[in-house]
């Protein structure tokens, strides 16, 4: 199993990623990209696979819209927290979310069926077998289905190190003797992932940078600094170059061939 298991880091992960400005940016950019594409699939119940979805933020969001969701993660602790969130949800009807505790490499169409949408966010950068694992997920995608892939951008990782003055780290090709636990082990180049999409005959219908500004902000901000304006600027610039290529993460939304 090649997945990074966040069982021991679940609380720290939640604190660092969710409920923070960078978490708000991530959610806003991804939903801005997904919402119009979902609308084009028609007003019907969709089957959604959230592969490596952790706490299930988008699983819950899509389930509240009436879709049938399968949430898979290798971390039992994260799935437990997803279940807790589901139980305290204020929706009058139970959310249609099936939880699967397994590595995403273990998923198959034979066992789990086919999906209209597959989400895989902030997962591939933790895998040594990223490309074949993603290809395996796509065997479960229906014709004209959507594949939402968000990955950690290696070039942005390099640029952030450069502007921070970490030149030895850059010279070492972003490798350190002691890894920071929440620093992805296998960041990817944008062109590398574009080549995957071409090989898979996936139409790239949308691409965005995630956190194209936030991670480069100066440490000291004006007293009247407005995070809502930051969010607006992130949304405005996230689909423009050169900002896409500076996103700490990059989101690709692809569509499989119709036949």
UniProtKB/TrEMBL annotation:
E.C. numbers: 2.1.1.-
Pfam families: Methyltransf_11 (PF08241)
Gene3D superfamilies assigned to the protein according to its UniProt record, in alphabetical order: Vaccinia Virus protein VP39
Keyword field contains tRNA processing: yes
The Methyltransferase type domain, residue ranges: 49-148
Residues annotated for S-adenosyl-L-methionine binding in this entry: 26, 52-53, 73, 121
GO biological process, one term: tRNA modification
Reactions that this protein is recorded to catalyse: 5-carboxymethoxyuridine(34) in tRNA + S-adenosyl-L-methionine = 5-methoxycarbonylmethoxyuridine(34) in tRNA + S-adenosyl-L-homocysteine
SUPFAM superfamilies associated with the record: S-adenosyl-L-methionine-dependent methyltransferases (SSF53335)
Keywords: Methyltransferase, S-adenosyl-L-methionine, Transferase, tRNA processing
Alphabetized CDD domains for the sequence: AdoMet_MTases
GO molecular function: S-adenosylmethionine-dependent methyltransferase activity; tRNA (5-carboxymethoxyuridine(34)-5-O)-methyltransferase activity
PANTHER family: METHYLTRANSFERASE, UBIQUINONE BIOSYNTHESIS O-METHYLTRANSFERASE, MITOCHONDRIAL
Function: Catalyzes the methylation of 5-carboxymethoxyuridine (cmo5U) to form 5-methoxycarbonylmethoxyuridine (mcmo5U) at position 34 in tRNAs.
Family listed: Belongs to the class I-like SAM-binding methyltransferase superfamily. CmoM family.
Protein's recorded name: tRNA 5-carboxymethoxyuridine methyltransferase
Species name: Shewanella septentrionalis
Gene name as annotated: cmoM
């Amino acid at each position: 199993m090649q997945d990074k298991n966040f069982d021991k880091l679940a609380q720290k992960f939640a604190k660092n990623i969710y409920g923070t400005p960078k978490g708000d940016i991530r959610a806003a950019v991804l939903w801005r990209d997904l919402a119009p594409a979902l609308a084009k699939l028609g007003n019907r119940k969709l089957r959604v696979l959230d592969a490596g979805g952790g706490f299930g933020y988008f699983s819950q969001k899509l389930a509240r819209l009436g879709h049938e969701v399968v949430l898979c993660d290798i971390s039992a602790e994260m799935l437990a927290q997803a279940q807790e969130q589901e139980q305290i949800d204020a929706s009058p009807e139970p959310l249609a979310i099936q939880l699967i505790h397994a590595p995403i490499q273990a998923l198959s169409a034979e066992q789990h069926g086919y999906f209209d949408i597959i989400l895989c966010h902030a997962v591939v950068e933790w895998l040594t077998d990223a490309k074949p694992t993603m290809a395996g997920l796509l065997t479960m995608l229906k014709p004209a289905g959507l594949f939402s892939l968000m990955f950690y951008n290696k070039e942005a990782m390099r640029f952030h190190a450069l502007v921070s003055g970490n030149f030895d780290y850059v010279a070492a090709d972003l490798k350190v003797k002691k890894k920071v636990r929440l620093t992805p082990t296998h960041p990817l180049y944008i062109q590398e992932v574009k080549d995957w999409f071409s090989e898979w005959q996936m139409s790239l219908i949308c691409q965005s940078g995630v956190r194209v500004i936030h991670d480069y902000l100066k440490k000291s901000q004006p007293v009247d600094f407005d995070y809502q304006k930051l969010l607006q600027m992130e949304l405005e610039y996230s689909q423009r170059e050169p900002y896409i290529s500076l996103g700490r993460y990059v989101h690709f939304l692809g569509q499989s061939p119709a036949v």
